[in-house]
Amino acid sequence: MKAFGARLEDAMQALGPLCAGIDPHRGLVESWGLSYDLAGLERFALTCVEAFAGRVAVVKPQSAFFEVFGSRGVAVLERVLTELRETGTLTILDAKRGDIGSTMTAYAEAFLGKDAVAPPDALTVSPFLGYESLRPAIDLAHQTGRGLFVLALTSNPEGAGVQHAVRDGESVAGSVVRGAAHDNAAARARGELGSVGLVIGATVGDAVRDLGLDLVEAATPVLAPGFGAQGGTLESLAATFGPARGQVLASSSREILAAGPDPARLAAQVTRVAEALPRP
After folding, report:
1. Cβ(267)–Cβ(55) under 8 Å?
2. Angle at the Cα of 200 (from 127 to 11), degrees rounded to 5?
3. Which residues fall within 8 angstroms of residue 182, CB to CB, at 6 or more apart?
4. What's the rounded Cα separation, in Å, for the pair 18 and 275?
């Protein structure tokens, strides 16, 4: 299978650099007039699949909102991932897994392995046990043609206390970018985006510049949550990411999902948001 970074570039150029979230939390599900139960979850999620498939570069289900319903909710998530894959639409599973040793290896096999039940194209992971704790997932993603998005700079107020912290002259976020750059070196040499991406909030302001993060050199795709209803704009994306703007996959959930529950209105909204974003 073609490497995830190259497939992502193709999708962003063809459909625009937008990632549409599927976030079936109680407030959104009930705002659609649905019951907050397994039937409501399934109706919400599959309506999103119908509206988003083939119209957006990437779809990002949030795993927690399916897991809350137990094994039956996970089965709905697996159906979402499978149906999107069958349409050729890329998926990022937002699960933020992170651990060490054999446990990290098991997480990697569950989501990225060749025998995974319903593997996404990429998985979000947390590096705050040390970037190298992710090695089992990184290596397996490269072997299977899948990708990772590693948390680097999140927009929650508490995040800066960890991510901006400096040790031996380098910020924690900087060490994450350095690790991703190393793992993307071969793709960078080919002039492609790597398959180890970063999660950097669309509303982190000047943090990328202030911490001296070279995202272009790292050849990282960047998943930027917070675009749209959470305050991220086209102007703020340009200001935050500068020369790396073409690597950024803007992620929006609330602004798009507010157009539901009608599939046609939802499809029109996701198309409108995608078309407003300049192609890389």
Report:
1. yes
2. 105
3. none
4. 9
Q: Which residues are catalytic?
A: 96
Amino acid in the structure at residue 210:
D
Supply the pLDDT for residue 234. Answer: 84
Do residues 165 and 171 touch, judged by C-beta distance below 8 A? yes
What is the pLDDT averaged over residues 194-212? 95
CB atoms within 10 A of CB 78: 15
Of residues 248, 255, 254, the one with CA closest to residue 272: 255
- Residue 199, both tokens: 């999660």
Q: Phi/psi at 123 (nearest 5 deg)?
A: -135, 140
Q: For the packed helices 38-52 and 70-86, what is the interaxial angle rounded to 10 degrees?
A: 10
CA atoms within 13 A on the CB side of 188: 15
Per-residue model confidence (pLDDT) at position 230 = 66
- CA proximity to 242, closest of 275, 270, 204: 204
| Sign of the torsion formed by the C-alpha atoms of 169, 172, 177 and 180 | positive
Burial of 105 (0-12, 13-18, 19+ CB in 10 A): middle
pTM passes above 0.90? yes
The number of CA neighbours under 13 Å toward the Cβ of 197 is 31
CB 90 within 8 A of CB 11: yes
Which residues are registered as beta bridge partners of 1? Answer: none
Specify the amino acid at residue 192: E
Using only C-alpha atoms, what is the Rg of the chain? 18
